[in-house]
Amino acid sequence: MSEKELGKNISLENYNICFETAKGKVRAVKDVNTVFEAGKVTGMIGESGSGKSVLGMGILKLLASNAKVEGRCLYGDTEISAYTEKQMDSFRGKEIALIPQNPAEALDPVIRIKKQLIEAVTSHGGAAKAEGEKRYEALMKRFGFQDSRETGRKYSFQMSGGMNQRIISVLGLMGSPKWILADEPTKGLDAILRRQVYGVLKDILCNDIKSMIVITHDVALARRLCDRILVLYQGEVLEQGDTSSVLGQPLHPYTEGLVRSLPSNGMVPIPLPDRDKESESKEGCVFYPRCPRACSRCVHEKPGDYQSADGRKVRCFLYA
Ligand SMILES: Nc1ncnc2c1ncn2[C@@H]1O[C@H](COP(=O)(O)OP(=O)(O)OP(=O)(O)O)[C@@H](O)[C@H]1O
Ligand code: NI
């Protein structure tokens, strides 16, 4: 596939996001340096609150108004973090489309399905109406809606969760984007729906879009779907590299713990933070209070991103 179809690499350089709140500053994303490669699926994993969604929404510039961003986000050589809202508006959907976590929130309950889907591509002066109609028909069939006319007349509340999930996938694909950013596509779904969503993502990967960012708690899903993995903890990317090495032979003690906590590996939980260690240091490694392999250096010094022999980057002094 050509760059025209694959899109361009998304690079983050010294990327930081903090929120100004009544209680002070919350640093949600800290010193991220990474490249999401076009043509690959990159998974962002990590526990709740680790900054996965904030990082994803940062790329798309969909952050709350109290957010402050430092550093750069590039699309190819273009600094999209410097784009105006208007520039971003035509960039989203056309280059990178979001498949949001919650279909119910993404769909407008008072507009019929078909109208919403067509407007997604015609309202920004993008595609012509006829073109939109054609794409709508084709995508609805692909996603298993045999009667696209009947379904198109419905409202989202008249459909099941699984149907709405497929509808927002169609919505994401209407603008023929190069990239998909899927935020927790399987969160809160039962096993059957999870399999369905996985099938939908696989289908998109086989037929339409090769460049994807998938945000998930679900390490098993990440292992099956992703070429590359970013492991987040308290806003930092602690380990990044190919899925097989990161999940197969984890290097960072946190990744090690995550992998050992999987049901298939005996569900050994990661120890909770050590209170004394927590109060001991604020400037050291973020994982220090929970780390079974910490050394004295981790208390007051922040590790950098060290490159391992197989090319992954690990934010841990063990690999300095
Ligand atoms: N508008 C905001 N103002 C203040 N803090 C915020 C805001 N939005 C997010 N945060 C904080 O940023 C941190 C990262 O949140 P984020 O939603 O990215 O986590 P996550 O890894 O996606 O978690 P989950 O798996 O639960 O979706 C959290 O501590 C959250 O409370
Ligand atoms: Ni999230």
TrEMBL record:
One of its GO terms (cellular component) is plasma membrane. One of its GO terms (molecular function) is ATP hydrolysis activity. It is found in: Cell membrane. InterPro entries: AAA+_ATPase (IPR003593), ABC_Ni/Peptide_Import (IPR050388), ABC_transporter-like_ATP-bd (IPR003439), Oligopep_ABC_C (IPR013563), P-loop_NTPase (IPR027417). It catalyses: Ni(2+)(out) + ATP + H2O = Ni(2+)(in) + ADP + phosphate + H(+). GO terms for biological process: peptide transport. Residues 12-259 form the ABC transporter domain. It is a peripheral membrane protein. PROSITE patterns: ABC_TRANSPORTER_2. Keywords: ATP-binding, Cell membrane, Ion transport, Membrane, Nickel, Nickel transport, Nucleotide-binding, Translocase, Transport. Gene3D superfamilies: P-loop containing nucleotide triphosphate hydrolases. Its EC number is 7.2.2.11. Pfam families: ABC_tran (PF00005), oligo_HPY (PF08352). NCBIfam families: oligo_HPY. Belongs to the ABC transporter superfamily. The complex is composed of two ATP-binding proteins (NikD and NikE), two transmembrane proteins (NikB and NikC) and a solute-binding protein (NikA). This is Nickel import system ATP-binding protein NikD. It comes from Murimonas intestini.
